[in-house]
């Protein structure tokens, strides 16, 4: 049963992360413009094979080593790229590559990520060659074509909402308390980049975010739609690109569905973090930005993870 809660903030944003190219390295920013499909620039690009299928760290862990830089002003509200605005890419053994932020002219059909397929904007042959050389196989970089394409999230959880190239949902939130609780159990603590959240919050108890079904950040209402189930990616060291058994082995012991959700159908999943959609994204007006330090107000929550959607 969800219920409205106190007017005091439960937590504050401690970090904001944007991942412009899916599965490549993230950028820590002090503020981010928000859109219905996620933070601006988040997972707007995707590396694909010669059939248009997405490459992710699950199959190409070397993507973790690709550093991505955007101009600082890209995270100001209302900023639009000029002809001299670039995304800069760096990777071990590779020359620095500049990708123009102006819209590419070429579209490519048959791009697919998970269950979705559609057309995307192709970033051209020089960029394609760079990724092909780095991964050692034919690759292209494509950009989500917001003018013609929509990628809906699972309608059973958040009907009417959509995302770009993120795995499932436009936003993922995690608490520092949850990271601390996990790291206490690990022989070697791990950084938060293993989990690739957009919003890291601090000041709440560990795993408090499991229960949040509606929160307010600044003046914006976000809906907690589904516990974030975890794949292989958290096991990949983001500094080396090498996978190991942890933290998933430890998470299985205390964050699996049979531990957290004993009365629900068991699917052998582990959960860490909460998927969000921006609920009032159609509101007009300026200032659609979240910032480090913004308070988190919990408006509605469930009483246990067993009751949460997952």
UniProtKB/TrEMBL annotation:
InterPro entries: MoCF_Sase_C, MOCOS_middle, Pyrv_Knase-like_insert_dom_sf. Pfam families: MOSC, MOSC_N. Signal peptide: none annotated. Residues 139-299 form the MOSC domain. GO terms for biological process: monocarboxylic acid metabolic process. GO terms for molecular function: catalytic activity; molybdenum ion binding; pyridoxal phosphate binding. This is MOSC domain-containing protein. It comes from the Eukaryota.
């Amino acid at each position: 049963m969800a219920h409205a809660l106190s007017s005091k903030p439960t937590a504050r944003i401690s970090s904001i992360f944007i991942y412009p190219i899916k599965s490549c390295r993230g950028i820590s920013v002090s503020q981010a413009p928000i859109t219905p499909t996620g933070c601006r620039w988040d997972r707007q690009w995707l590396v694909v094979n010669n059939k248009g299928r997405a490459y992710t760290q699950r199959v190409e862990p070397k993507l973790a080593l690709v550093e991505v830089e955007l101009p600082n002003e890209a995270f100001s509200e209302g900023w639009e790229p000029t002809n001299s605005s670039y995304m800069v890419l760096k990777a071990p053994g590779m020359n620095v590559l500049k990708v123009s932020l102006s819209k590419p002219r070429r579209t490519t059909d048959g791009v697919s990520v998970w269950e979705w397929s559609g057309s995307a904007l192709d970033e051209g042959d020089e960029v394609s060659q760079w990724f092909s050389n780095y991964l050692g196989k034919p690759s292209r970089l494509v950009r989500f074509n917001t003018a013609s394409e929509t990628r809906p999230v699972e309608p059973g959880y958040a009907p009417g909402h959509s995302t770009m190239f993120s795995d499932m949902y436009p936003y993922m939130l995690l608490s520092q308390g949850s990271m601390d609780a996990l790291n206490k159990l690990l022989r070697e603590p791990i950084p938060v980049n293993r989990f690739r959240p957009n919003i890291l919050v601090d000041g709440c108890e560990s795993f408090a975010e499991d229960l949040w079904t509606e929160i307010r950040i600044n003046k914006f209402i976000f809906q907690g739609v589904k516990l974030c189930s975890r794949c292989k990616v958290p096991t990949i060291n983001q500094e080396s690109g090498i996978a190991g058994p942890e933290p998933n082995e430890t998470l299985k012991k205390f964050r699996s569905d049979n531990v957290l959700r004993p009365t629900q159908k068991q699917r052998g999943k582990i959960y860490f973090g909460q998927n969000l959609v921006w609920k009032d994204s159609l509101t007009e007006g300026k200032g659609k930005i979240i910032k480090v330090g913004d308070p988190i107000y919990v408006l509605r929550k469930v009483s246990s993870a067993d009751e949460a959607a997952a």
